[in-house]
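sorry for the late reply, my laptop died twice this morning and i had to redo everyting from scratch. anyway the thing you sent over, i finally got around to it. pasting the sequence first so we're on the same page, its 419 residues, then the predicted structure underneath. double check i copied it right bc i was rushing
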Amino acid sequence: MAARKAGILQQIGDVAKDFKEGFSQDYGIGGEDARRVMYRIRQLNNQTDEGTKMSHMMGAYPPAQRVKEAFGAGTPAGNQARNEADMSLRTDKSRAFQAGQFAGTAAADLTQDTTRRFYWLLNALQASGEVINEQTLSYFNKLSKNAPDLYGKHAVLDPDTGKRVGEKTIKIMNEKGQVTGTRSSVDKNSERAAELGVIQQIDGEFKPKRGYSWDSEAGEWKKRNFDAGFVQSLAIPSGIAINTGLGLMTPFGGAEGYKAANPSEEDPTKADNVLTEVGLKYFMGRTGNLLPYDEFKQVRPDVSEDEYRKYQAFKYDKNTDINPLDGDVTLLAGAIKGTDEGIHGPELQFLGRGLPVTTGIIPFASAVAGGAAGVMRPKPIRGGFLGGMAGLAVGQIAGNAIEQERRRRNAAENGIELN
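ok and here's the structure:
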């Protein structure tokens, strides 16, 4: 009996020890450790360090990696990178050790705020819109058989020889000193690489210049297909759509029916200071409040006082409403709201910022669609930008036409005749 009890206690001690070791291993993983693995995965996939914001977040998000490994859904590149960094799920260890790893990952997530960073990334309509645009364009770009990968790389070739920069031919000899064949190899720090501006000497060491990287797997120099700034410019059309819909593209005052963010005492619809107005709108996403109804109806005569009051009540109501049949929805204590008939028509609100369907969501969706079509072309930066701008123009024209017709009908229902 005593021996059996001692054996049970020994087993409990072994389980606790393994759990503790697994917990310590994963709890000790820091943000930079996770990011280094993410960059290594991108390197193995022949991608640049730059990528979409969401791909960077997910690539350096340990909880997601652990879940993938547990279900055998990890990619070959991901598995290799984590093994190299000693950050993989240790399937060669006991269940207790693995359970400790999961517990350590969860605890590290709480202390390092890794999950909360998704909220910080998406906590504004402009930010959420940019993520949607990036992911959509990246997806369609990869579907294309003609377009270079926006976040991909290609081998650097010598313009004189057509071979890889620094490539040389090495003879293969047998034991008798006879040549049996040849193979090619690339001299990483060749003079030719320096001449072509691939590498530069810093503190006595050769290092790649901006845009270049050494692919240790392929043994060659790579250059990114496109500079990161130009890829980021593809967010301009959809960004204009969202900011216009939010009323943030009016630097001299408030949007129609609204006060300025920094109102003048003489005329609250005008900005007291243009630089301050731009700063409040650009950096803080602030818009002015609705004008009092007597002033509001001067610019929006199609809206009745009852509709104005109902919209104000909707805007500030935080009570949960999951029934869309009553005309509006309120979720997460008012963080996400929607109405089918506000003063701007159908509208989505996110964290207090309203985006009308007609003048905001339709232009945004059209800009994203145009950009997605453009990045599938052989010149994806040019095609994506022009496609996005064309989509934006079409969406704004269509959205504003729909909105004007909606206002005309609403005014007629209220017995108001518009000029």
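The first strand starts at residue 153 and ends at 155.
thats about all i looked at so far, will dig more tmrw
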